Each structure stands twice: as structure tokens, then as C-alpha cells.
Amino acid sequence: MDKQKMTLKEYQRSCICTVSVMHQLAISIGAKNPHHFARIFDEMTGEDTQSSGLWRNNFNGERPLSNKQLKRLFCIDNKVKKLYIEGPCKLWMAMWGNPSELISIIRGYSKCFSQMPLYAITKEVSRSIRESGEGNKTLEDLVWSICHYRFTKEIQPLALVDVDRYPVTQASCAWNLVEICLHDKFIMKELNALGVRGGIAEELVRIESERTCKLSMEQRLTDLNIPGFSVEFSWEEAEHLEAFVEDALSDDDAIDSAYGIADMDEDLKEVIAFSC
């Protein structure tokens, strides 16, 4: 992909995806380093990429894979494009996917029934992950926790729960679950093997920092009793969200947003009902 056609954030994310793909492919073919990977790749395809060091910058995260490179890698693994777009266990979808994709992953967790109400799934899976011992968590647990956190952060940023008689936002509880997974030895080992532990942690911390800064600002405005400002959720206002999105975004973006809102409408009502 061409750097000039991406924003800086998109370029950085593409580099993270690239590093993960290259490490997964290296593991699958038994390569120990970029030079060794190129040699095995050349033997399998009849090309000569070793002398040019074609894959070195991709392994190092200095350059994202181009479309031409992805087509070349398809010759040794036909799942490479899916790995690049979705990530291991759909990690990239959890990190950067839209709300409908988040709900799909939340409902698709292997240890629960997708027919369960959404609030029941989040309660049961959160409890299960918290109670699992050190080293017993999986990459799927991290992916689910990220989806749960991002969905809660966007839909219920100010909803409160009691934790030892103290009110805490549900988003903060969801973030704590992400932290638990990030500190798990098995998950750390998996992310290290993919070469993306630092990049993933940095991106998630950035997202959480933005949330807490925004929450702090909103709380300060509320304390000052600024006229016209409200942090309370209004379902009546939410029903007009689609029209608001269409006014605020381009035509194409508005269409995409409208589809996303329609897809998650029932689950949204379910979540709001549970939090009230």
C-alpha cells in the first residue's frame, strides 16, 4: 500500500498488521529471521527476493505490505489476505472494526451461546475471563475483551456500576479486563511471537487515555453546570442519531453509518435496558 494515500494513523496500523502477518508466515514455514524467510520463499516460488532484502522492512514494521507483496505471499499461504485484514483471532477487527463487527465477535465467543441476550453474554464471559488463572487465558480472550471495552466505551461511556460500594463506569471495568489479558503470560508470549505486543499495548493505551481525558472534561463541565450540556443518555435523542450522522458525514459515510445503526439496534436497546 502507498504511504502517500494513507493517513499517518492508517499507515501505522498497516505496519502493525504487516509485522504480524510476516511473523505468522515465518512461523508457519519454519523461518528464523527475515533473511531465512526470503531464502525459503525463493525456494518455494522460484523468485529471488533474498538478495534485495525485499521483506526486511516489512518484518521490522518500517513499511506496510504492498498489494503486489500480498499477491506474492499468497503463493505460500492462501490465507494471507485474511490474516492481514482480520488479524490473528480477528484482533484487527477488535481493535479497529465498526460496532456491528464488535457485536459479531462478542456473540461469537467460543465459550458462550450466541442466542443469549447480549448483557448475559458480557456478564458471563467477563466473569469467566477474570476467574481464569494466570497463563490460562487465550488470544481469543484478549480479542473479546477489546471488543467488549470498545463497544461499552462508545455506547455506555458514563453508565455506572457499584464496585465495593464505589461507583465506577462500566467502560473502566471493561478496560480493567483488557489490562488483565494484556498482563497474562500466555497472551504476552503470543503477542511477542507475532512481534506486535508493544504496538498493540500502545494503541490500546492511547484509546483509553483519550476516553479518560474526554470523561474528565465532561465531568468538569457538568460540575460547572454549563447551560445546555448534558451527559445523560437519552433514547429519544438516540433515535434521531441516523439523521444526525447523515448531516455530519459524507453521503457514502452516512450510508455506511445507517447500515451499522440498523444492524445493532436491537442489541443497543438490550444494553441500555440492562444498564438502567
Mean pLDDT: 81
The radius of gyration over CA amounts to 21 Å
Structural class: mainly alpha
| Low-pLDDT residue spans | 228-235, 237-264, 272-276
Distance separating the two termini: 46 Å
Q: What share of residues is helical? A: 55-70%
Strand content: under 5%
CA-based shape: elongated
Count of discrete alpha- or pi-helical segments spanning 4 or more residues: 16
- Characterize the largest beta sheet: strand count, sense, and whether it forms a barrel: 2 strands, antiparallel
Tell me the strand order in the biggest sheet. Answer: 1-2
SSE series: HHHHHHHHHEEHHHHHHH
List its salient traits:
single chain; 276 residues; mainly alpha; two-stranded antiparallel ribbon; 16 helices; 2 strands; 3% strand; elongated; disordered C terminus
How would you describe this protein?
The protein has 276 residues and is an all-alpha fold. It contains 16 helices and 2 strands. The chain has a two-stranded antiparallel sheet with strand order 1-2.
Give me the secondary-structure topology:
Elements: H1 8-29, H2 34-45, H3 56-59, H4 67-74, H5 80-86, H6 91-96, H7 99-107, H8 118-131, H9 139-155, E1 160-163, E2 166-169, H10 170-182, H11 185-194, H12 197-223, H13 235-238, H14 241-248, H15 251-263, H16 265-275
Antiparallel strand pairs: 1-2
Helix pairs in contact: 1-5, 7-9, 9-10, 14-15
Question: What's the short story on this structure?
Answer:
The chain is built from 16 helices and 2 strands.
